[in-house]
Amino acid sequence: SCTLPTSNPRTGARHLRYNARANNSGLRRALGFPRSVVGTGSAFYIPDLPTNNQDIAFCQFRTGGNANMLTLGISSTGRIQARAGGRGGTLIGQSEQIIRAGAYQHIEARWERGVVNGSLEVRVNGRTRLNLIDIDTTNGLDQDCEQIFYGLGGLPKTGAPDYVDMDDLFIWDDQGDTNNDFIGDKKCYTRFPNADGAENDWTPISGSNRFAMLDNVPPQDASEYIYAVGNQSFNERQTVQLANFPAEIVAVAGVVTYTRLWKTDAGDAGVQVGLISGASEAQGAEHALDQSPGYYQDVFEVDPATSSPWTLGALNAMLASLERTL
Predict the structure, then answer these.
(1) With the C-alpha atoms ordered 218, 220, 221, 227, is the resulting torsion angle positive or negative?
(2) Model's pTM, two decimal places?
(3) Which of 172, 258, 302, 306 has the fewest CB atoms found within 10 Å of its own CB?
(4) According to the model, what pLDDT value does residue 155 have?
(5) pLDDT value, residue 154
(6) For 77, left (φ over 0), alpha (ψ -120 to 50), or beta?
(7) What is the pLDDT of residue 145?
(8) d(Cα 178, Cα 181) in Å, to the nearest integer?
(9) Per-residue model confidence (pLDDT) at position 234
């Protein structure tokens, strides 16, 4: 388990914190489908170095059955250590003393499946600090990675500091033409709708502004939402504007939408989320809904108007769209 406090953010108002001494405290991210190559990066902060070599980890690469294949840990002297399996596994390799306490540092790792020809590369603040080739990255299991766990499973860690903070977390794979290798230190900015767009087929549960129903943290599922009844002669669409992004942004790796959706009765219901740039729109996959509110993710790595990376100007001008398809 984790918390989202406001005490030590690197970007925005909140950050991820887990209890470094608790059993299985951390964050687990299922990847959706098996991947033979996966990378992840995050700003990483520890208030103190651990007093035991196996008590703090950046992440663990796991199978779909929750077996640890490889653990990236932090030693008592600030070395990044790669261990087979879990935190007590055989040491495969380690970096020089690079991690320091009391400051955010950016760690990014690339894991590739292999029993004899696997590889692992770890970069800290953009520089390669650990590069292992022709190794077993699966602890003999020879399986793809299906989830990443940030933290450490297993028994409580008595030599760990009280907590670990993380911010600006991302995951990538080797598929597609964009963001398929190291993408470097990036910040993750969150923006909420701040105005309705021109298409307003969805209905707010109260008031006349749709966007005002969509900007709650935490969500207010019982009292603030918009809805589309379906079974129309047309697909009901809703567009919204988003608040501007910071002026200091110089490069954009991509845009990710998180949409909280559900249906209220039996029958099929589907929704597509999109981004509109100029006269062009890109839509994610159709989401088939159930009756429990849940978050649905869509990734838009390039501007649909240019098929090139997003610019700050395009970000600030884009609209988000919801379309009920069933």
Answers:
(1) negative
(2) 0.94
(3) 258
(4) 63
(5) 64
(6) alpha
(7) 98
(8) 8
(9) 83
Query: Under a CB-based contact definition with an 8 Å cutoff, are residues 303 and 310 in contact?
Result: yes
Which of residues 102 and 54 earns the better pLDDT score?
102
Is pLDDT of 286 > 80?
Answer: yes
Residues 22 and 230: their CA atoms lie apart, in Å, by: 47
Q: Which of 49, 254, 307, 243 is nearest to 160 (CA)?
A: 49
Q: Which residue type does 300 have?
A: F
Q: Looking at residues 107-134, what average pLDDT do you find? A: 98
* Exposure string for 125-157, b = 16+ CB within 10 A, e = fewer: eeeebbebeebbbbbebebbbbbbbbbbbbeeb
> Tokens 């701040």 appear where?
194
User: What percent of the chain stands above pLDDT 90?
Assistant: 89
pLDDT band at residue 157 using 50, 70 and 90 as cut-offs = confident
Query: Amino acid identity, residue 319?
Result: L
Quick one: 64 exposed, middle or buried, by C-beta within 10 A (0-12, 13-18, 19+)? middle
pLDDT, position 230: 83
